[in-house]
């Protein structure tokens, strides 16, 4: 099975190189994962992200593909990356069913063996959404111990409302994977909107829900570990806590900021 790793890039010059290196790309002295391709999709960066992308490609020219997506957002660059992967495998004569799309974020560090663990899980779970495991580094937890104590207390308070792992439908997009054939059968990533006209930022979870209606399962690749950036916690800890880390719609964020500026 061939792994196509798709990373959307928007002003990620500070972290992108480290992310690529953690996945096995960008270091001329290190061989990339066997049977894997890295697809970097720039989404209109105005910093040095393109220079970093080009440097990563120079280190692994046969294994790294650079692409552009002019339409800004969460969905367009991810979908563009999948289309690039589809074109490449079609050229190589590979079946869509033998290609695993791995979503990755440009500010996340992936543990050694991440790609092989995801591929191994996918080979044993056809027709499934594969999900790795995202951890917060112990150093970050220690540095923000008060925040995480409060988060743990909130989690315990609502734990009775949580579903079992088998019934969970919220997918962590930075550690998600699926066969190319399933992505196409499930309808791919779509820009979807709520009744106010605000875009719903849950494209991977909604992709899985459409797949689930066709009988798709969800499989946890317990050995595929990643450490996402927690910079949003540092930027606005109260907002991050209120949203549990999920990107919310524009109108929700406006109401939130208005409420925080009021006396109620």
From TrEMBL:
<dbReference type="InterPro" id="IPR029044">
    <property type="entry name" value="Nucleotide-diphossugar_trans"/>
</dbReference>
<protein>
    <submittedName>
        <fullName>Glycosyltransferase</fullName>
    </submittedName>
</protein>
<feature type="domain" description="Glycosyltransferase 2-like">
    <location>
        <begin position="5"/>
        <end position="122"/>
    </location>
</feature>
<dbReference type="Pfam" id="PF00535">
    <property type="entry name" value="Glycos_transf_2"/>
</dbReference>
<dbReference type="InterPro" id="IPR001173">
    <property type="entry name" value="Glyco_trans_2-like"/>
</dbReference>
